[in-house]
Amino acid sequence: MKFDTIIVGGGLAGLLCGIRLSKEGQRCVVISAGQSALHFSSGSFDLLNALPDGTPVRNPLAGVEELIRQQPLHPYAKLGKEKFGELAVLARELLLEAGIAVKGEEKANHYRVTPMGNLKPTWLTLKDLLACESDSHLPWKKIAIFNVLGFLDFYTQFIADEFRKMGTESSIHSFNFPVLECIRKNPTEMRSTNIARLFDKQENLEELIRLLKTESGEAEAIILPAIVGLGQDDVVEQLQEKVGKTICLLPTLPPSVPGIHTQQQLRKYFQHLGGVYMLGDTVLRAEKEGRKVVRVYSYNHGDIPFVGKNVVLATGSFFSQGLIATSERIYEPVFDLDVSFSKDREQWYNLDLFAAQPYQTFGVKTDDSFRAMYRGQAFENLYVAGAVLEGFNAMKEGCGAGVSVLSALSVAERILSK
């Protein structure tokens, strides 16, 4: 099977890289082992929230220069300030083209509301989710929070308590419909995705509309858990139009309906552009000739190789087994690439649970063009993008999504420039 580019990993990095290449006429395949981290997404994309020394960043475009100075191995350092800004704009445009409506910009972080009701800075947020410009208050004085009776992944009281600290009073409402009983019989079925599938049916949505109109009272806005919109884009618009009030969604604990919908939209757009998406297949090994990868073999295809001019590794970090940790080392399982990590295992972690954990900066080594390093030398046609890269702490710096999309687009540009 011959392709221009083989992409290993079907998450945010892999799909955006494939979309960018496919738009320019390349024949691409994405090989995805299964669910990506998008299935656990908050519905927001972080670009840069804090420097390595902990200094908060309000303007990512202004803060990236100091980030590069503090952490020269950071993936953003390989982009440089100017390219960082260019690719951030391109990423936002590609998301919109793929049908993923987002709000936000690169010059100023806004604030998203977490599943616990706190405010956290971010770059882009899906349009239907609750977000605001202020870091201390919401735009309403009185809201109504609704939740499905028995849905345990949405903590209404915690959320109301946090909102009260910001000057917003909340009324809490639990509701139940007969159609929900089919999934309530088994507690493991009462998950956001299963509820969302029920609300993809118009008759159930109409019943929700009647309930919201009746019980929201004098509230200025209505807050719902993100349990609608799995299979369609305009659910919140329908609700707002028929209820006559602002309605916002809040992310729940995983699985994430907004994240899964984002994954579906990216995959659909990639395939619309001619890309081939192979779900449920795992790349096992590769054959190399000199400093080139010439063939890639997967579990499902046995001895039938994938052959491509270029290969992109976008398998994610420990979470998705793009990196594997043993008691002695950390390694990359597909190509056995060079990985940065401390040989002293006690240097992998910090005993302070809330401090920056060193292992989070471990990852695959690359040159300045994101070409993978193998035994100290860069491959000519194997590139690396996303969470598997070395040199950044996604949690403490608030840059996980940004690293994924910007490194992926940079790799695509490198391939297209050949």
UniProtKB/TrEMBL annotation:
Residues 4-403 form the FAD-dependent oxidoreductase 2 FAD-binding domain. Signal peptide: none annotated. Coiled coil: none annotated. One of its GO terms (molecular function) is glycerol-3-phosphate dehydrogenase (quinone) activity. It holds the Pfam family FAD_binding_2. PANTHER family: 4,4'-DIAPONEUROSPORENE OXYGENASE (PTHR43734:SF7), PHYTOENE DESATURASE (PTHR43734). This is Glycerol-3-phosphate dehydrogenase, anaerobic, B subunit. It comes from Odoribacter laneus YIT 12061.
